[in-house]
């Protein structure tokens, strides 16, 4: 029996609130691309509506540290003080081995690390907000974070935006449909090649 072709890796990064999840969910909903979401592990608490094993694997900090010690992560970062996020080796390896392309929603440091690890097998894509003010408005409008968490996320955005130059491709998420269509085309071109 012939083995399926190994899937490719699509890394999507952006400051929180730029619309990564919205864009990824729309691409998954359209179902035109053979794309599976890499469910990360995190030690942050679930937001309302988030499900274990769907949005994240929600671990305690102790469980997260055990998983690090057991070598379960391709990469992990303390994205906010005391809150860890990591890409599970099992997610990426299994899905790619089955021939599916895998999409990773990960922070800027993790994104650059994964791109360096996988080279041409990975595409790194950065989603930019129209402006930092609009980013703040979207986080407020999402209604999932406290004012302190929003200030923390906006405060970090400038630092994160400085990583955009290290990514293969950039998309500005101003009009959502246009941003989804651009992302869709970039991914299709990459996996066809
Ligand atoms: P991220 O995953 O990058 O943190 P989200 O996908 O949760 O961001 O988007 C943050 C908020 O902005 C959500 O409430 C979402 O509905 C909204 N949003 C996303 N894209 C746009 C857009 N192009 N215009 C206006 N609002 C948007
Ligand atoms: P949120 O708390 O809004 O879900 O995510 C916060 C940040 O953590 C986002 O920038 C998101 O992309 C990032 N993130 C999510 N999963 C991972 C992961 O597995 N590794 C890394 N390095 N960052 C992640």
Sheet with the most strands: spatial strand order: 2-7-1-8-9
Specify the helix fraction band: 40-55%
Query: Strand fraction band?
Result: 15-25%
CATH evolutionary superfamily of the largest domain: P-loop containing nucleotide triphosphate hydrolases
Low-confidence stretches: none
Topology, element by element:
Blueprint: E1 9-13, H1 20-30, E2 35-37, E3 40-42, E4 56-58, H2 61-69, E5 73-80, E6 83-88, H3 89-97, E7 101-105, H4 108-118, E8 122-128, H5 132-142, H6 147-161, E9 169-172, H7 176-192
Parallel strand pairs: 1-7, 1-8, 2-7, 3-4, 8-9
Antiparallel strand pairs: 3-6, 5-6
Helix pairs in contact: 1-7, 5-6
Keywords:
single chain; 193 residues; alpha/beta; Rossmann fold; Guanylate Kinase phosphate binding domain; 2 domains; five-stranded parallel beta sheet; four-stranded mixed beta sheet; 9 strands; 43% helix; globular; binds adenosine-5'-diphosphate; binds guanosine-5'-monophosphate
Structure, explained:
The structure is a single chain. The protein has 193 residues and is α/β, with parallel strands linked by helices. It has two domains: 1-34 and 99-193, Rossmann fold, CATH 3.40.50.300; 39-98, Guanylate Kinase phosphate binding domain, CATH 3.30.63.10. It is built from seven helices and nine strands; from the N terminus they run βαβββαββαβαβααβα. The chain has helices spanning 20-30, 61-69, 89-97, 108-118, 132-142, 147-161, 176-192; strands at 9-13, 35-37, 40-42, 56-58, 73-80, 83-88, 101-105, 122-128, 169-172. The strands form two sheets. It has a five-stranded parallel beta sheet with strand order 2-7-1-8-9, with helices on both faces. α1 packs across α7 and α5 (132-142) runs antiparallel to α6 (147-161). It is globular, with a radius of gyration of 16 Å. Bound molecules: adenosine-5'-diphosphate and guanosine-5'-monophosphate (5GP). Adenosine-5'-diphosphate (ADP) binds next to α1, α5 and α7.
């Amino acid at each position: 029996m012939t083995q399926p072709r190994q899937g490719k890796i699509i890394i999507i990064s952006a400051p929180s609130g730029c619309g990564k999840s919205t864009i990824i969910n729309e691409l998954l909903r359209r179902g035109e691309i053979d794309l599976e979401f890499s469910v990360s592990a995190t030690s942050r608490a679930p937001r309302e509506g988030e499900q274990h094993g769907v949005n994240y694997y929600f671990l305690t900090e102790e469980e997260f540290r055990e998983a690090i010690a057991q070598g379960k992560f391709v990469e992990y970062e303390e994205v906010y003080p005391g809150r860890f996020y990591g890409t599970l080796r099992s997610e990426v390896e299994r899905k790619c081995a089955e021939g599916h392309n895998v999409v990773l929603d990960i922070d800027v440091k993790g994104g650059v690390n994964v791109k360096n690890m996988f080279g041409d097998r990975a595409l790194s894509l950065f989603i930019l907000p129209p402006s930092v003010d609009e980013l703040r408005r979207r986080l407020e409008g999402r209604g999932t974070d406290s004012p302190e968490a929003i200030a923390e996320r906006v405060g970090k955005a400038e630092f994160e935006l400085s990583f955009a130059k290290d990514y293969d491709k950039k998309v500005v998420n101003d009009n959502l449909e246009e941003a989804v269509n651009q992302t869709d085309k970039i991914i299709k071109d990459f996996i066809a090649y």
